[in-house]
Amino acid sequence: MMLEKCADGSWKVPGFIDLQVNGFAGADYNSANTTLESIAKSLRIMFSTGVTQMLATVITGAPADMLGALRNLTRAQRELPEGRAIAGFHVEGPHISSEDGPRGAHPVRWVRKPDLEEYRRWQDVTEGQVKLVTLAPEWPEAPAYTEALVRDGVTVSIGHTGATREQIGAAVDAGARLSTHLGNGAHKTLPRHPNYLWEQLAADRLNASFIVDGLHLSETFLRVALRAKTVARSVLVTDAVAPAMCAPGDYMLGEVQVELKPDQRVVLRGGDRLAGSSLRMDHAIANVIRMTGVSLEDAVTMATENPGRLCGIQSNGTTRFRFEGGQIQVFETILDGAVVYRA
Description:
globular, alpha/beta, 8-stranded parallel sheet, TIM Barrel
């Protein structure tokens, strides 16, 4: 990873890459009715956080709603000047655990088994741009499904799961390469051992993504997880939803009603279960340095080189920032040679 120190004391790095963005700056990527203008605005604001490429993420929903959201996002990718920041799509679900805890904020009524025909419909409407799929490996169909997606060049990730050691092992043998937001989307109480967190942490063929907002993961768990995975196999994601960089209040995540609290937690409306995040990538990088003591170079690697390698995303941007007082202060973002943000 190229971390270049500039004469003015600032840093120049490849643009940040975020593999999990469900929405941003008021735009809900999970709704087919979200306007292109709203998506364009969200991307322009995202540029101010140093992100130059991301995977727009669609979660569990009705088949027609998921297709509609993917079709709308593909239109944004193709028609908007800012759309070149959408490097592809992450489909998170619907083939996940139906149990409370592992299911997270995904609507239980739309959880369903892996279906290759459904996957092919996603690829049809996105012109082959689905690059990452998260599923739970406990479904009997999961190994064959995983093998088929991997043959297509799609990265398969384990997530929202209550799988056994054997089921996780079968997923890895079938080609799964990532754990989605490891440490979240889990039961509140787990057996000491075995459990699916330890099993994924111990699987050397699995990379892991982490939501480092100080809310989703404790400092202790994050430190241990990074030691197990190492920086080389760790990825920072935001899992941002529509209220990211907005005022506290009520928002939507597809058909799910969510609320941004004053402390920046995004929860299911009327409850306390986390439902995505309001995290921004520049803050995630600063947070992982503060919480774990990794170097600036290692933190940036987890937000640039590692996600790009996992999903075959070639960096097409540059981010310049100052690192002062433990904070990342982005002052210039360049995409395809053009300045898209300048402080």
